[in-house]
């Protein structure tokens, strides 16, 4: 004799539409090039507002020329050889100063960071020198080198050195002590431990310091040219301001900003290429 089951069967889960699943998966992924598109839209909106404000009379065009006039002046300036000479002088001062500060900061950072006694011994000196603004050294730079490029280098090196040096110290301090002790137990010397243990661990900090130092170096290079009168875009801006060429002043400022964007994008690309194995870069590229 057979009996029919009296318990009700558990309700089955509602089927999920494959199209819905595909749509939800697509929705969670950002569009390729979305960041660049948003950046371009933001820049376009900024230029549009800039164009409208002086033409609507909110600000006098004498003090804020329309964006179209500024860009037209910049386009004309691009055809002048002297403009590219000024760009070359600015890039030379920026690049040379950044290279000097990078090498000095990395070498001293690894040396001081690897010796705890030396780090404690120099900490008070670092905390005293680091907050001194580079512009405070302008009179000293003029006294020592006049208006030559050495004055610009002095300010650029001093400002960017601390950005890189502090990051290198943080990177050396962040090394896993277990990994370092393991390398030591395998008989690796100090130089080998720095190469295979300390350097890979500190490299993200080093490149962060390079990115910060590159931006600060460009700011100080242009500032030195503005105030000291050494050759470069800063000097061109100062001369245009003295001559009352307001539109040209804004055009040169836009050129300086574009140079800063190029520097930042270049350092970012270098960072992603060198740190392609790092989790932060892999997660960024996966987005």
Automatic annotation (TrEMBL):
UniProt keyword annotations, A-Z: Cell membrane, Membrane, Transmembrane, Transmembrane helix, Transport
Transmembrane segments: 36-53, 91-116, 128-147, 153-175, 196-228, 248-267
PANTHER family (alphabetical): ALKANE SULFONATE ABC TRANSPORTER-RELATED, MEMBRANE SUBUNIT (PTHR30151), TAURINE TRANSPORT SYSTEM PERMEASE PROTEIN TAUC (PTHR30151:SF25)
Localization (cell): Cell membrane
Organism in which the protein naturally occurs: Halostreptopolyspora alba
Membrane disposition: Multi-pass membrane protein
A Pfam family the protein falls into: BPD_transp_1
Keyword set includes Hydrolase: no
Name used for this protein in its record: ABC transporter permease
Disordered: region residues: 1-31
């Amino acid at each position: 004799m057979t009996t029919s089951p009296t318990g009700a069967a558990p309700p089955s889960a509602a089927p999920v539409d494959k199209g819905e699943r595909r749509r939800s998966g697509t929705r969670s992924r950002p569009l390729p090039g979305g960041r660049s598109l948003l950046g371009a839209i933001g820049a376009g909106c900024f230029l549009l507002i800039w164009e409208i404000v002086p033409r609507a009379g909110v600000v006098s065009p004498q003090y804020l020329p329309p964006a179209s006039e500024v860009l037209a002046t910049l386009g004309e300036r691009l055809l002048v050889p002297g403009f590219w000479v000024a760009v070359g002088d600015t890039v030379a001062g920026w690049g040379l100063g950044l290279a000097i500060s990078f090498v000095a900061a990395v070498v001293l950072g690894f040396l001081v960071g690897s010796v705890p006694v030396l780090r404690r011994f120099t900490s008070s000196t670092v905390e005293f020198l680091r907050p001194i603004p580079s512009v405070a050294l302008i009179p000293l730079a003029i006294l020592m080198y006049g208006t030559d490029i050495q004055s610009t280098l002095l300010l650029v090196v001093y400002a960017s050195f601390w950005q890189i040096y502090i990051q290198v110290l943080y990177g050396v301090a962040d090394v896993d002590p277990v990994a370092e002790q393991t390398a030591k137990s395998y008989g690796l010397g100090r130089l080998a431990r720095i190469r295979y243990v300390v350097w890979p661990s500190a490299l993200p900090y080093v490149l962060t310091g390079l990115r910060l130092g590159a931006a600060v170096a460009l700011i100080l290079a242009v500032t030195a040219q503005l105030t000291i009168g050494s050759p470069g875009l800063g000097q061109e801006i100062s001369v245009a301001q003295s001559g009352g060429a307001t539109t040209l002043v804004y055009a040169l400022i836009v050129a300086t900003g574009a140079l800063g964007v190029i520097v930042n994008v270049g350092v970012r690309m270098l960072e992603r290429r060198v740190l392609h194995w790092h989790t932060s870069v892999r997660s960024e590229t996966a987005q």
